[in-house]
Amino acid sequence: MKALDLKKIFHKELDVIYGKEEVSNFFFLCLEQYSDIPRIYLQLEPEFTISKPETEQYLNTLEALKHQKPIQYIFGETEFYNLKFNVSEDVLIPRQETEELVDWIIKCNSKHSEESLKILDIGTGSGCIAISLAENISNAEVYALDVSEKALEIAKNNAEQNKIDVSFIKANILDQATWDLDFRNIKFDLIVSNPPYVRNMEKREIKRNVLDNEPHLALFVDDYNPLIFYKAIIQFAVDNLKPNGELFFEINQYLGNETKELLMVSNFNEVELRKDLNNNYRMLKGKKK
User: Fold this and answer.
1) pTM value?
2) What span, in angstroms and rounded, lies between the C-alpha atoms of 74 and 86?
3) What average pLDDT score do residues 171-198 get?
């Protein structure tokens, strides 16, 4: 089948769900994934034909997209901060806002390139934050924890795939007994977390492909205690950050000031709330006094 004819089928079946622009992007991602062809190639070779076995892959992907399964889960992988990461429905799909957080951390710590830094990522999921920091900050000794055994398996595989050394720990940051021994003799220079922060009341704002596929354990918190993870992580940081150590968060855009206040009353200064590229307050950092 001609690639352009297959592209028309994608639009016919999916435009009503996703819109024309996103469907075009889906098709070209499939072109790269299954046929190893860059999107510009079709402009140069409009008669390009896709083999029957490859066509089946495209049509299977089309069917999954009709049921609003995220394309990253269909492919089983995605890209984050110029690295490849395996993903499944046991971990969140890494997002642009999290890349911005990682970029902020790297830029803030470029001056430490000759120093050894101990870094902890709390709630690592796919490992995208921890692995990207280990790759881009020289002499970083990176630890990462998560409560999910399945998530940790994926994160470990991602570290191995990218040839990055990260120490992974199964623990629940809300339960000190699960991590106390691991960190009793370690003081960190930097702690980062993208914890669950979406309130149940905000589910109506979440797209169906996220709500039906991504792990709720990593997304949602109770409406009546939405900052539960931030409170626990800040307390951990008070006890386990070195003086002048930095704490970075990805945050709920609607709770920026409330989360900032938690840092300001907990022995942190130089507190900064930062907007992402979509103009939402999504990142926060503070320095331990």
Assistant:
1) 0.92
2) 11
3) 90
